[in-house]
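haha ok so turns out i had the wrong file open the whole time. this is the CORRECT one, sorry everyone. sequence first:
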Amino acid sequence: ALDGAAPAEKGGKAEDGRAAFQAALSIDAANADAQVGLARTTAEVRRREEAQREADRLLEIARHDLEAVNRYLYDPNAQYAELVRRVEERQKLIDVAIAKAPGKALGHYLLARVWEIKGWEDRAEAAYRKALELEPMLGPAHDQLGRLLLARAGRTLVGTSPEERAARRLQ
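then structure:
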């Protein structure tokens, strides 16, 4: 059982390594290597779980606030500079959450929404695609990506250039 523990742990599979160390200890409870390995992998699993919880907390804050920002888009008195300020504040939370839990599709989805609001369609598309790679059944990412691609196709038909879109981002 101990033979599989180290490769699993080194391969980034702390849960599998922990299970292998536990199996080794069930055979020989005095095995010092298994005891140390179990303690190490248990600590790693706990660290990852805490990172996941913190990422969830940050993403929930960002998601809620981005909904408010999205409503602000439809305010006739909205100022673009204020909109960007609000979005950039939330982007910081999302970036931290993605760093803590890069495998969470919601983080990439919310980052895509940020990029889209800021006018960076290429980055938004990449982030939507990453979210869908991580969670293929994430319906909102499919919807938003489809809407983004349809809007892009519509602009192509009416001749809006990338330069014109870049100029609008700077306004």
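The mean pLDDT is 88.
again sry for the mixup
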